[in-house]
């Protein structure tokens, strides 16, 4: 689980003018004033980062990872899902794209993460800190 801690979860915020975009960085166990401001602006309480790449930390090729990513995108229909990129501190692991979902219920997020073979999700609640929540797959 060290990989989760050594990662910045970079969320692409909606562009105000369709040209410029801002990034929001989340780190485990840290508060983010930028995330708090964004959540207040969009009247949301939480951001949950999840992805479908490299299930159970098994490296897949780009084609299979993109197919998994698209399945997760379909599973998130009806939610506000912003692009996010898990950027590792070291270059031994490639950045993994995923989704930063606003106000996704924890139980639903955990079910989706498990369905897509992920060991955990990163959840940030306004005024709190980014937390790693492990799925049952990580506890086996």
Describe this structure in words.
With 140 residues, this protein is an alpha+beta fold. The chain has one domain (2-139). Helix content is 26%, strand content 30%. It is built from 4 helices and 7 strands; from the N terminus they run αββαβαββαββ. A 7-stranded antiparallel sheet has the order 2-1-4-5-3-6-7, with helices on both faces. Strand 1 and strand 2 form a beta hairpin. The longest helix is centred in the middle third of the chain and has 14 residues, at 62-75. The radius of gyration is 14 Å and the shape is globular. The model has no long low-confidence stretch (mean pLDDT 94).
Broad structural category: alpha+beta
Terminal CA distance: 13 Å
The averaged pLDDT comes out at 94
Spans where pLDDT lies below 50 across 5 or more residues: none
Question: SSE order in H/E notation?
Answer: HEEHEHEEHEE
Percent strand equals: 25-35%
How much helix, percentage-wise, in residues? 25-40%
Beta-strand segment tally: 7
The protein's oligomeric status is: single chain
Q: Tell me the number of structural domains.
A: 1
Query: What overall geometry do the principal axes of the alpha carbons give?
Result: globular
Could you list some keywords that capture this structure?
4 helices, globular, 26% helix, 7-stranded antiparallel sheet, 140 residues, alpha+beta
